[in-house]
Design goal:
With about 180 residues, this protein is of the alpha/beta class. The protein has a single domain, classed as 3-Layer(aba) Sandwich (Rossmann fold). The chain has 6 helices and 8 strands, in the order E-H-E-E-E-E-H-E-H-E-H-H-E-H. Strand 6, helix 3 and strand 7 form a beta-alpha-beta unit.
C-alpha cells in the first residue's frame, strides 16, 4: 500500500466519511486537519484538528458574500506520525506559508490519508470566490505532484463507493498501529 492515499471525486460522494469511518477512534492519534461544512445558522467552513479540540473558520457566508481567512491555514500544524489532510486543493494553496509546509510534508516519509478537492469542485470554487489564475496554477501543480508521486495513490470515488472505504481500511491497517 502506498504511503499517501488521497480520495477525490464529486462533492458529497463520501470521501471524508470513508476516512473518518475507517480511522474510527484512531483519528485522535493523527495530526493534520479535517474540513467541515456547517449550515447552521449560515454556511461556513472550518478546519478542525482530528481530536476535535481546535476549530477555526476559514470561509464564511454570514454576510451573504464569501469572506475568506487564509491566516487560519498558517496556524495548522502539519506534524505527526500520521497525517489526515481533509481536504487539500482549495483556497489554502493561496497561503504561501501553508503551501510550503504542505509541499514539505508531501515530500517526507510521513504516511498521509486525505481528500483532494475534485477538479469540478475546484472550478466551482474559482467562480464562486472569484479566484485568480494563481489559484488555478497552484491547484494544477498540486494535482500533478500527487499523481506523479510513486508513493501516492489518488483514488477517484463514486457515490457511496464501498471500494473507497475498503481501500482506506487497508491503508489504516497498514499505517495506524495501536
Amino acid at each position: 500500500m502506498k504511503r499517501h492515499l488521497f480520495l477525490t471525486g464529486s462533492i458529497g460522494c463520501g470521501k471524508s466519511t470513508a476516512i473518518t469511518v475507517a480511522l474510527g477512534e484512531k483519528i485522535t492519534q493523527c495530526g493534520g486537519f479535517l474540513t467541515r461544512r456547517y449550515r447552521d445558522p449560515y454556511l461556513h467552513f472550518t478546519l478542525e484538528s482530528p481530536d476535535g479540540n481546535v476549530k477555526s473558520t476559514f470561509l464564511d457566508f454570514a454576510s451573504g458574500k464569501p469572506e475568506v481567512d487564509l491566516a487560519v491555514f498558517s496556524k495548522k500544524d502539519l506534524r505527526g506520525e500520521i497525517l489526515v489532510l481533509d481536504e487539500i486543493g482549495g483556497i489554502e494553496l493561496l497561503n504561501p506559508e501553508f503551501a510550503s509546509a504542505l509541499e514539505a510534508v508531501l515530500s517526507s516519509g510521513i504516511p498521509i490519508l486525505g481528500v483532494l478537492k475534485g477538479e469540478g469542485a475546484a472550478g466551482a470554487l474559482i467562480d464562486k470566490l472569484g479566484l485568480t489564475e494563481e489559484y488555478h496554477w497552484a491547484a494544477g501543480k498540486l494535482r500533478q505532484q500527487l499523481y506523479n508521486d510513486p508513493n501516492t495513490l489518488v483514488y477517484t470515488c463514486t457515490q457511496y463507493d464501498e471500494n473507497a472505504l475498503l481501500l482506506v481500511r487497508r491503508w489504516v491497517e497498514e499505517y495506524c498501529h495501536d
